[in-house]
Specification:
By secondary structure, this protein is α/β, with parallel strands linked by helices. Helix 6 crosses helix 7, helix 7 (158-209) crosses helix 20 and helix 18 (512-549) runs antiparallel to helix 19.
């Protein structure tokens, strides 16, 4: 018999979480252990395995008491997690009395279906309320709803606190990791945006000529791929890889190239996503005999490398990739999530491999090693300092480390500064994570986030291809669920010779007129951005000069601050095309957001921050000027 109440509730959930809606409909409640009972006041309660979910004296009063105790009710930039759906009283109270976004996390489908079958829960129909039942969905919601300043809180009933406290802590940790990932990704995007713009336009001619990774769909259907990352387990298994390299197609990340060259291992595909110049990592003969898989925004020197051919991997929302896709009249659902190993796994999946093995994907500092021996950062060590009572990362050879961090520079000050910054970053982001053997080992917070990302990706890929076999041979490293942990020596026993394909590179068909129109429009819009940044540069330069002459907030400085603020407001008149959203956000981050509430605390702080802004404006003007030149060159190429 049709349950109209259930259908109404589920139809709303399906608008933002179709997967959960389908799971609820499929779930069979016939063996449910839930009981619906009433107290002396005829108020309903849930009884689950002998435990009341709500306060026996009244579920509504309990919800009012919990929500009433929350002090930051008016805060808008917050994600409030409600652990447990219950009968919906807590959700209703939260939705009616709290600002911000609300995510209801209920892992028990029995409770969800039973409760949604009883009555319409008004709180779930609010635009700022979302229901989920697993941590992957929770992470997706937090990531989508976050910005760099978003706070996260969690609320729960006494029932959940008494029985599920460890899981409550894990849910909060999972949400915080997802928010940290969002913040880290956005900050990285802002930081790398200027160079990514120039790289994209510098690479445009080659991007247009190259095939897309999607053109390789199923070329190795049913075969085995080996994805090589630079973790310690790579070096430990290097001889096995060397002896068996004809049994799998090898996908190598750029930091592994040096080690592979030393052992005469020929990768079939080399992958790279960095905006910076790491071309020194490619100075080996094996690169010329490999195919490259590259993001459009990666450094132009890498696109210029001699190889067997280039395949574009154009993720849908990274930097100016939407504009590139528009130029090529393409659509893409590909992602890049800050690690090239993600790109390797997706690329192998697209090529149809039935078995994908990853190694060097330790995602942890195993046995004190941060990277594989022979790789680019091989001499970094993670050691426990008793006197500090914590793990510390340090190089065993500072000169080699400095050269590895900044291989293309001869300026000793820049080299030392970059090395210090990178070491500080690593030491500021040490965490612990579950290893394959169940113990805890040190890692980087970014690696901890990647564990969740790969776990989720593996689950998604197996849904698309249930027969896919994913194997993690990074023995001793982080535990990545949805991968089988099998040592590489065991894996190769069942493998046979694979004939490597000599892929014919065919330049794709392009619409030259469409590309030319896009280039012309882009040059016009870049010119508008240039005018805006030039105005900021002039206003900021005047302000810096005034503060240099008289380091105080006198009338002249205050007027110049007002003039600068008026220029910032002109951002509303900049192009609103989807391609420019990130550029505008990057500029706002470097200017407007950088001037936080403390920047006027003293004239000295104000001067320092404006000097930074002036430096960035000079960088952006140079980038835009060079980009326009590169676009003009490409325009000329298309006309030939």
């Amino acid at each position: 018999m049709e349950n109209k109440v259930l259908n109404e509730n589920i139809s709303h959930v399906a608008k933002y979480n179709k997967e959960l809606a389908d799971e609820i409909l499929r779930f069979n409640c016939e063996k449910s252990t839930l009981q619906l009972v009433q107290n002396e006041n005829n108020e309903f309660n849930l009884l689950k395995e002998g435990n009341f979910v709500h306060d026996i004296y009244g579920a509504l009063n309990e919800a009012k008491r919990i929500i009433g105790s929350i002090k930051n009710k008016e805060e808008k930039n917050i994600i409030r997690i409600i652990y447990g759906l219950g009968l919906g009283y807590l959700v209703d109270e939260a939705a009616n009395n709290l600002n911000g976004k609300i995510i209801v996390y209920e892992p028990d489908l029995d409770i969800i279906k039973t409760v949604l079958s009883l009555a319409k829960i008004d709180g779930l129909f609010k635009d700022n309320v979302f229901l989920c039942s697993d941590k992957d969905s929770l992470m997706d919601f937090v990531y989508a709803l976050s910005n760099q300043d978003t706070n996260i809180s969690i609320t729960f009933l006494n029932y959940h606190k008494s029985l599920f406290l460890d899981d409550i802590k894990d849910v909060l940790y999972t949400a915080q990791k997802s928010q940290a990932r969002h913040k880290g990704n956005r900050m990285t995007m802002y930081k790398k945006m200027p160079q990514a713009i120039l790289n994209t336009f510098s690479n445009l001619e080659k991007i247009i000529k190259a095939q897309d990774i999607l053109s390789l769909k199923d070329i190795y259907k049913g075969k085995t791929a080996l994805c090589l990352s630079a973790g310690p387990s790579l070096a430990e298994n290097i001889e096995i890889i060397k002896k068996n390299q004809d049994k799998f197609v090898i996908f190598a990340l750029n930091p592994t190239v040096k080690l592979l060259a030393q052992h005469n291992i020929q990768p079939d595909f080399i992958l790279y996503i960095e905006t910076i110049d790491n071309s020194a990592q490619f100075e080996y003969d094996i690169v010329q005999n490999s195919y490259l898989i590259l993001e459009p925004y990666c450094h132009w020197k890498v696109y210029n490398l001699k190889s067997k051919g280039i395949f574009n991997y154009i993720s849908q929302n990274s930097f100016l990739n939407p504009w590139v896709l528009d130029c090529l009249k393409m659509q893409s659902n590909l992602q890049t999530v800050g690690t090239v190993s993600y790109m390797a796994l997706v690329s192998a999946f697209l090529m149809g491999f039935e078995k994908i093995v990853v190694i060097g994907q330790d995602l942890a500092y195993k046995d004190g090693n941060c990277y594989a021996k022979g790789s680019h950062y091989e001499n970094l060590r993670c050691v426990f300092k008793k006197e500090l009572n914590k793990y510390v990362i340090e190089p065993d050879n500072i000169e080699k480390f400095e050269k590895a961090v900044t291989p293309s520079s001869t300026d000793s000050k820049i080299i030392k500064l970059n090395a210090q910054k990178y070491l500080k970053f690593l030491n500021d982001n040490i965490a612990t994570i579950k290893a394959q053997n169940g113990s805890l080992i040190p890692t980087q917070t970014g690696y901890a986030i990647f564990v969740d990302i790969f776990k989720k990706l593996a689950k998604e890929l197996k849904v698309i291809n249930p027969s896919l076999k994913l194997i993690n041979s990074s023995n001793g490293g982080a535990q990545i669920d949805n991968f089988e942990n099998i040592e590489l020596g065991e894996v190769v026993k069942d493998l046979s010779f694979i004939e490597k394909k000599n892929i014919e590179i065919k330049p794709p068909e392009i619409d030259k007129e469409h590309i030319k129109i896009n280039i012309q429009k882009m040059k016009e819009n870049l010119t508008v951005f240039r005018e805006y940044i030039s105005k900021i540069q002039v206003a900021t330069n005047k302000l810096c000069d005034a503060l240099n002459k008289n380091l105080e907030f006198d009338e002249n400085v205050l007027n110049l601050l007002k003039q600068q603020n008026e220029v910032f407001k002109q951002a509303k008149d900049l192009p609103k095309d989807k391609y420019f959203n990130l550029i505008l956000e990057s500029i706002e981050d470097r200017y407007v957001l950088y001037f936080n509430e403390n920047y006027l605390k003293t004239p000295k702080i104000c001067l320092a921050k404006n000097r930074y802004a002036l430096s960035f404006s000079n960088e952006m003007l140079n980038i835009i000027d060079e980009s326009i030149k590169k676009l003009t060159d490409c325009e000329f190429f298309i006309l030939q």
